[in-house]
Amino acid sequence: MKILTTILFLSLAISGTARSESKTGIIKRYMVIAKVSGMCGLFTQMARFQETTKMEGGDEFITRFLATEATRLGHTSNSFIKACPKVTEDYKVFMEALNESEDKK
Q: What is the C-alpha radius of gyration for the chain, rounded to an integer number of angstroms?
């Protein structure tokens, strides 16, 4: 129950529109933030790996994979990549608050 309380508190602190969201909507939003921030991390790691290894066909694979996943989510590659810093920051703030909540137990 403390996690749900923390989620609700964070939602009010981070987003002015959270007041009109249901508890379920807030939880769904944070699940999406977690998923997308993970995808952003994956694409970053793939790009770093390709820069290091220079694997033949790797650039094309990453480009096509990113385009396919972004399209599946209703984005272009560029719009997805541009959203990554904000989503990653939202995830970081959320996790810090959850960790603080656990530390207070």
A: 17
Contact (Cβ atoms closer than 8 angstroms) between residue 77 and residue 67: yes
Contact 12, 63 (CB under 8 A): no
Is pTM, for the whole model, over 0.85?
Answer: no
| H-only helix segments in the chain | 2-14, 23-53, 58-72, 77-103
Structure letter (DSSP) for residue 21: S
Q: Phi/psi at 76 (nearest 5 deg)?
A: -90, 170
Give the residue from 63, 23, 21, 68 showing the smallest Cα distance to 46.
Answer: 63
4-49: pLDDT as tens digits: 444 444 444 445 544 567 888 888 988 999 999 999 999 999 999 9
Q: How many Å apart are CA 87 and CA 48, to the nearest integer?
A: 20
Question: CA 7, CA 12: separation in Å to the nearest integer?
Answer: 9
Domain residues of the chain, as ranges? 2-103
